[in-house]
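Hi D.,

Good news: the full-assembly prediction came through. Inputs first.
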Amino acid sequence: MPIQLAKSLKLHRDKVWSIDCSNGMLATGSTDRSVKIIDASQYKLLDELDNTVHKKAVRSVAWRPNSYVLAAGSFDSTISIWNREGEEEMDNSWEMELLAIIEGHENEVKSVAWSHDGAYLASCSRDKSVWIWESDEMGEEYECISVLQEHSQDVKHVVWHPYLQLLASSSYDDTIRIWREYDDDWESAAVLNGHEGTVWSSDFEKSETQLRICSGSDDASVKVWKYVRDDEEEQQEWICEATLPAVHTRAVYSVSWSEDGHIASAGSDGKLVIYREAQPGQWKIVDQQELCHGVHEVNVAKWIKINGKTMLATGGDDGYINLWNWDTSSTSNKNN
Amino acid sequence: PVLQNVELLTKLLQLNQAPELTTDESDEDTDDMADELGVPADPIDPQEIYDLIAHISDPEHPLTLGQLAVVNLKDIEVHDEGYKDRMAEVIVKITPTITHCSLATLIGLGIRVRLERALPARFRITIFVKEGSHQSENQVNKQLNDKERVAAACENDQLLGVISKMLSTCK
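Then the structure:
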């Protein structure tokens, strides 16, 4: 079954920049400064966060794993932390209360991400740095435990590995950096060079047997990078294993690696593309959807899980969130 | 013509079915009939783009970008079929007045803001500094075409104030 639009929701008055999904709850961030919480299984708007908290666009939203704690990073250079109020009452009412405002970045926060165990929050900014934060039990106090400054330009995006304490950052300096914990501190483990333009986003493979990451860039390409080895006290060695079939004609703003191994990409040309690895290191396009937000740009594409079912969520400059059905089992007999 | 009629018929049939795409408050522009039927409006041409940006004021001279030949008709490229539901592209090459002009980025941003406000959503706008006209071409070009930086700049009140002043001479 090809990509099919399941639901189109006009949630924002301006660009949708970011989507995150956890426990079937979608959070979205927009230039209109608001954050919305949606029950994705019922397409129901549960709450709209107080939109006076951020003075500028909300660029990035992220749920802390196994909780109803949400981080929102804004162009106003702050990060807000929210929690569901009265969660223990188990009623249907939803209200997110503000827990904390984190300050530290000099200017626009571009991305926020929680580590797989929720222990760390990473943030990045136009100030060229990546910050790693640790919070108390309540999630009210945040302490910066490391400021990583090796990027030479804006850091556009951060993402954690699904199982390891490994962080990847993508930058306007055209590189991706991998960061690891070392001696109670954090250090640069590798620099991935190869894109010929800003790297807008990256996402790790959800595998326990190998370590790979995909990336999408302003150069209109999507690449897959593979960890090769780690000599003691040396930099990790990564290689660019594949450049995916060229299909985008403009900047790729978002990439997402599904649990069952598919990569999705979307960007300025309005296309949503799904790729599958036919042979190790050899990728094929298995499906694509043109104009998935009409003539508007697509800022984010993300594999999400709703009631055990995998779907794709996209957010565009038109203020819409689109949810797409796609049957992953159908790809084995397609385009072979 | 026969083929076109078949297409029209298909489109008409589609029109009679309830559109599936926008299920919520569809506050999209109400399309006129001609557009729904796939008949293109007049495509936008370079002259129209020129007319939109030539009257922008230079941030430091009492002259417009057209008068200073920072923008020139021959340096404007447009790819547009006129269809509202297809992408279109405009590329503007600017020639800053002096090679180390630190205001090149500001001028480029002013042009971008003007075009983003005036052109339909189908347009992708690329702004370049003309080859050889600026010391740090690549840097300026990268910045002018970085969507996120432009969006953030447009939320900077001070910068927006300067740009509003530059655009106040536009018709």
